[in-house]
Amino acid sequence: MSASKSNDEYVGLEPKMDKRAKAEMELAQQNKKYRRTVAIIVAIIVVCIAFVAVVNSSLFYTHMTAVKVGDTSYSAAEFSYYYETVYSEYYNTYGSTIDTSTVYSYDEDGNPLTFADYFTEQAITTMTQITALYDEAMSVGYVIDDDYAAEIDSSLAYIELYASLYGYTTDGFLAAQYCRGMDTELYTEIITKYLTAYSYSNYLYESFEYTDEEKADYYAANADSLENITLYYYYIPASAFADLDDDAAAEAAHDAAQTIADAGDLESYLAAADEYAGTEDAATSWTGYGDDISSYYSEWALDAARTEGDTTVVDLDGSGSYALCFVSRDDNDYPTVSVRHILIQAEADDDGEYTEEALQAAYDELVEIYDMWQEDPTEEYFAELADEYSDDSAEGGLYEEIYKGQMVTEFNDFCFADHETGDTGIVLGQSDSYAGYHLIYFVGEGDTYSNVLADEALRSEDFTAYRDELAGTYTVSTGWAIRFGKS
User: Of 191, 186, 161, nearest to 175 (Cα)?
Assistant: First the structure.
């Protein structure tokens, strides 16, 4: 027989006691229950306080796993670096901050995705790629070159400068910029790993080699993506004929566009557009890669038979019509050039303007450098002078494989003026960011620009495929601490 009894077996077996004793006993039981409850609550509070203390300490941000890529664990502080990097890229692209809780899309199940989700996804993708490239670099004994090593020191100096400007210690600035736990030591580890992976990726990118035949075949197969098309368009909306019904208005827009297109050559087309609009420069010029042309008229524009002055009319489903005129298609079949240059920038005044006196001073200084070079008019000495005096950071003042339109107008015109090696010239260069004089030394011609474009595209495709395949071998998981690495 069991030694235990059911509750029913104990009914009526309680010891007899008076009301006072019974009341005291119940009070005692209540007090005991109260003390037990208080003890439990206190214990919970102590645990919570301890947890908050850990969360508020740098140990939590640097020791709890936020993301794990393969065998590498990343803390919340480390994740915050990549998250903030992605956010900064977005800010630099669009020029504004954004509420990361804003919904930007929906997943396949219809659940909302916020910008925080987007930045997190992009950060983890970057972390995975960096980890994969870094691990492989270490496995083959890859060592970053001096330029990348210098970049690490430069980044730290940049951080120290901004910290002092805003009244922070360096560690305090890093913690404010990223999250608690980020300090100089951890930041150095992160950017060293990042730049090592980046340096190794450039090494891989440059390691791919292609024959001229492979480049030519790729270019021919992808010409629409690699060649610039220039054309003019003038749009006439059907709504301009408000007194007509829809069909008649669409027809009137077509007829007006046809009149402009029938004008003849390019000059006549532009004059007809101006006459119809009653203004000058009415037609809009467009230049871009063939892949970027509107699908409404891309087939016409990309036809190999197109020549300057060809025109057509394209109707847009009753809403209006385009009058188009083809100008040119650049097949990039010309040699690139290499030059060295020495830039002396003019000093801007308080209004950001460049006075004649400032430009003259820059020119005079450059002439003095030119006279120095005349003492030993060699390319080697020119490179030395560029390193010593130029306001441009290119090593030895060297730019290779320059293509048409890459440089400011005056610089570009010199580069493609049929020079021979050793030819020099002084040209004024101006843009939104500077004004000054360039002393240019013509080094020589290089590969055709079509080959350069094909080579770059092939390398980009092959490197991306290699990197993605490598990163695809890594398993990725996230930990609870990831939420502390987000803004």
Answer: 186
